[in-house]
Amino acid sequence: MSKLKCAVIGVGYLGKFHAQKYAALPDCELVAVVDNNPEQARAVAEQNHTQALTDYRELLGKVDAVSIVVPTSLHFQVAKDFLEAGAHVLVEKPITVTVEEADELIRIAKEKDLRLMVGHLERFNAAILGMDLTHDKPLFIESHRLAPFNPRANDVSVVLDLMIHDIDIILDIVDSEVEHIDAKGVTVLTSDTDIANARITFKSGCVANVTASRASLKVERKMRMFMPNAYVSVDFQNRVLAIHRKGDKEMFPGVPEILSEESVFENGDALLEEIKHFVTCIREGKEPLVSGHAGRRALATATAITQLLKQGVV
Is residue 13 in a domain? Predict the structure, then answer.
């Protein structure tokens, strides 16, 4: 089996890790890294024994697959160019700036039978991978994603930076159309929304209460799901999955007992698992776990929340 010729476009904080993963995979050849900062490109290229470029267009038609880790405003053009040149694309979240741009990328990928995957990394968290909700859909979901301020992500609001992770997971779990959204947000450290809360009501009847902050003093990434016969808690940060179910006995007359089990998962490499999945989908012609359609769905919901926030941000 010949090696996939791969490249990483944008090797800043996150992109350099993409480069490391491709370089470590035996069935991939990292042929180049690209960054508009030539010193950064050279440094990452030297670490991974590949060439450094400053113009991604030099690679069009010369690679099989790329990771695109550039600012969100550039996602569409760079992804479009590589798809049209016949390369499979893993683009960091959010997929694009607008839903219309996402639709265009999805169209091109389908037309050319290429894999288009979106980097919603939390889908590859071991705690999420270990969860099975196929037989019990949630009635209510609550999520909190809190983080200290990070200047490298200030080109988008907290919704597209942090909340979109939970939006993507919730949309996948609930698997129902959104019926109504309420949202409120506040500015704290930037001119954009830094703390946001959204209440998403689905046609299935499920309600999700989603909170995200990039102005907190601690890191917290938790989600709680309430089902007819169970309560599931996921701690993404510490990779803990707790499941509480109704038992057959009673703890009080007329009140069922609660049986609890907790799983703590090892600190795996979610990014490596994500890129390995991308490569496997290319090899086997499979739809990625986080497809272009999934990325579009998350973007559409995040965009609706953002528009509501702009109307009522304080």
Answer: yes
Do residues 211 and 197 make contact, with C-beta atoms less than 8 angstroms apart?
yes
Q: Is residue 290 domain-resident? A: no
- In tens, the pLDDT along 116-156 reads 999 999 999 999 988 877 667 899 999 999 999 887 666 67
Range 38-58 burial, b when 16+ CB lie within 10 A, else e: eebbbbbbeebebbbbeebee
Mean pLDDT, rounded, of the chain: 93
* pTM (whole model) above 0.90: yes
**Residues in the chain, total:** 314
Rounded CA-CA distance 57/54 in Å is 9
Q: For 81-125, write each residue's pLDDT tens digit.
A: 999 999 999 999 999 999 999 999 999 999 999 999 999 999 999
Q: Report which residue type is found at 154.
A: N
Domain presence at residue 218: yes
**Cα(212)–Cα(247) distance, integer angstroms:** 34
Q: Are residues 180 and 256 in the same domain?
A: yes
**Burial (0-12, 13-18, 19+ Cβ within 10 Å), 135:** exposed
Residue 294 forms part of a structural domain: no
Q: Which amino acid is at 191?
A: S
Same domain membership, residue 307 and residue 173: yes
CATH number, domain with residue 97: 3.40.50.720
pLDDT of residue 154: 64
Percent of the chain with pLDDT over 90: 80
User: Which residues span the domain enclosing 242?
Assistant: 123-270+300-312
- The partner residues of 196 in beta bridges, in order of sequence, read 185, 212
Domain count of the fold of the chain: 2
